[in-house]
Specification:
Blueprint lengths: L18 H9 L6 H11 L2 H12 L3 E5 L5 E6 L2 H12 L5 H4 L5 H13 L6 H14 L3 H11 L19 E4 L15 E4 L5 E12 L5 E8 L2 E8 L10 E6 L10 E14 L5 H35 L3 E2 L2 E2 L4 H29 L4 H32 L11 H7 L2 H4 L4 H14 L1 H11 L7 H14 L9 H20 L2 H12 L15 H9 L5
Parallel strand pairs: 3-6
Antiparallel strand pairs: 1-2, 4-5, 5-9, 6-7, 7-9, 8-9, 10-11
This protein binds flavin-adenine dinucleotide.
Length: 539
């Protein structure tokens, strides 16, 4: 160590170092996948993997619209580090584990693996997540699923635009958002004209956001004669020619810079109907449900990496004669963000189990409402936690090499895509109004912790009163949904959490003994143990 600078946080196992994750992993039924996530945790801590993350972001993708002869090619070129990250992600089944091994705990195992590997780099998670999520939507058209699923679920990353049947593995994206509206997809104007039997259509129009446009195929929303419908649109046609899918430009984004997000135009693009004509939203919502889970996992992952970096840095940096991690006010800040991170990890793993058990009607109802409220809340918290963790590093945190700037730029994105904050909060209201069984399922889960803590019990009573008050419901939605999420996290912690973390969570977030910034926990001897538990140890 030199000049009071910490050693790099490298060569540690991101799974082994994460006690809340390990415990949730066992509890929620994924112990059979232990070796997979432990190996991934080890790889994620290597200098090699960390370098890939930096290189893929320092060298963002480039659009090549035409070849040297002026022919349209619509290719995106990536730095080799991107391909390395993708190789690992696909090779470990982060895009397909539950479809390859449909057994209890498969979504939980994948959630843990996706959370670990996303800590290395967030951008490449986008096509990985969309490929994972496209499978359940595609299954609504069994003929198409039979054809595509085997290719979507191999462990081979095989980039490049070629006829799908000739590839060892394919990736999927989605194109819903148009210039005039992303939240309200009913305003979509892209047209799909039927051309014959078997659901064949020609699609013409424009999409304002289409991430990972180098994917092999997309689920696309377009207006068919019977209304807004979902289509499978491949980039390359079976005869090897390019489909009418043109990438107009790549977006210059705040963060997520390793990943390509584009504007695309469809020109008589050949596509096949998925699901019922006119029921496009209902069809693609199956995909959106799964990508929303990944927004929660992504947020948990950002928080965990930020807390790991901050607890590590402050354990090696001195100010005013003491390590920062010994300064009482810094201990309070670190413990507070660690509490938030732990609560998010527990929630993410519980929600992943609801995906595993979705055949059980109660779990399906719980999943319906839990994902919406979980996405709203955890994505919001990620922004605040990462900002605070960045500040724990002082000036070093503002410098790219620390990784914190990258985490900070990535953090708001999970809240925007797959339904922005308000849209998710309103979705919780919609579930409550149209599917009252979701409320029962939510309350049944929360109430499992009743009788353990008076402040929690009182807050649940109060929440129930608020839930039944429909006056100004839309305007109050954020407050209500936030409270629902916090009480769900509180319930999980009371049943399964570390005792000190649980006490701190309940007294601050539920009983209200807390300020408006992190670092305002009620002081006590337990704070130090929280950050010690969250600090990764170098071997
Ligand atoms: C990096 C990136 C990549 C993306 N990749 C894709 C992709 O691959 N495919 C794709 O289809 N889309 C993609 N998107 C688009 C994304 O899903 C949309 O941006 C998002 O759904 C919001 O739509 P919008 O941008 O049109 O905002 P708007 O719909 O105009 O919403 C603006 C704001 O208004 C709020 N709002 C909307 N309705 C209401 C209401 N009734 N009450 C209160 N508030 C409301 C929203 O919450 C939001 O905060 C991507 C976006 C980003 C930033």
């Amino acid at each position: 160590m030199s000049a009071n600078q910490p050693p790099p946080l490298v060569d540690y196992n991101l799974f082994e170092a994460d006690a809340p994750l390990r415990e949730a992993f066992e509890r929620e039924g994924a112990s059979w996948a232990h070796d997979l996530v432990r190996d991934l945790g080890s790889l994620a801590g290597t200098q090699q993997a960390i370098d890939w993350g930096f290189q893929a972001n320092a060298n963002p993708p480039q659009l090549r619209t035409h070849d040297r002869f002026g022919n349209r090619i619509d290719e995106v070129e990536f730095h080799p580090a991107w391909h390395e990250l993708m190789h690992v992600a696909i090779g470990h089944g982060l895009h397909a584990l539950p479809w390859r091994e449909p057994r209890a705990g498969a979504h939980v195992a994948r959630a843990a693996a996706f959370y670990i590997w996303s800590q290395v780099e967030g951008g490449h998670g986008c096509p990985v997540s969309m490929t994972y999520a496209a499978v359940p939507a595609l299954r609504q058209q069994p003929r198409l699923a039979q054809q595509w699923e085997p290719l979507m679920t191999t462990l081979d990353y095989d980039p490049g635009l070629r006829p799908p049947a000739t590839k060892r593995g394919v990736l999927f994206g989605m194109a819903m958002t148009e210039r005039q509206g992303g939240s309200d997809v009913r305003t979509n104007t892209t047209q799909a004209v039927p051309t014959g039997s078997n659901g064949e259509h020609l699609v013409t129009g424009h999409k304002w956001f289409c991430s990972a446009p180098m994917c092999d195929a997309f689920l696309v929303l377009a207006q068919a004669p019977g209304g807004l419908s979902c289509f499978l649109l491949p980039r390359v046609l079976p005869d090897g020619t390019r489909n009418g899918f043109h990438i107009e430009r790549l977006k210059d984004k705040l963060g997520n810079r390793s990943n390509a997000s584009s504007e695309v135009a469809f020109e008589d693009a050949w596509a096949l109907l998925v699901g019922e004509e006119g029921k496009g939203v209902r069809t693609i919502i199956e995909m959106v449900n799964h990508t929303r889970l990944d927004c929660i996992i992504g947020s948990a992952s950002l928080m965990r990496q930020a807390v790991a970096q901050a607890t590590h840095h402050t354990a090696h940096r001195k100010a005013f004669g003491k390590l920062l991690s010994e300064q009482p006010l810094m201990v309070n800040v670190l413990a507070d963000i660690a509490v938030e991170s732990e609560a998010t990890t527990l929630l993410m793993m519980r929600l992943a189990r609801a995906f595993d058990q979705a055949d059980d009607p109660n779990e399906a109802e719980f999943r319906r409402i839990g994902v919406a409220l979980g996405k709203f809340w955890t994505c919001k918290r990620a922004v605040a936690v990462v900002a605070e963790a960045l500040e724990c590093h002082g000036g070093n945190g503002y410098v790219e090499e620390s990784i914190l700037p990258r985490l900070y730029r990535e953090a708001p994105l999970n809240s925007i895509w797959e339904g922005s904050g308000n849209v998710n909060a309103l979705d919780v209201l919609r579930a409550m109004q149209r599917e009252p069984a979701t409320v029962s399922a939510y309350l049944a889960e929360v109430e499992l912790a009743l009788g353990q803590n008076a402040a929690f019990d009182k807050a649940v009573d109060e929440l129930k009163r608020n839930m039944s008050n429909s006056q100004d419901a839309e305007s109050r939605a954020r407050l209500l949904v936030e409270r629902m999420a916090v009480l769900l996290e509180g319930s999980l912690l009371l049943r399964h959490g570390d005792q000190i973390v649980t006490e701190l969570f309940v007294s601050s977030r539920i009983a209200g003994n807390w300020g408006h910034t992190f670092g305002t926990l009620d002081p006590g001897p337990g704070l130090k143990s929280v950050l010690e538990q969250h600090r990764p140890r170098l071997d």
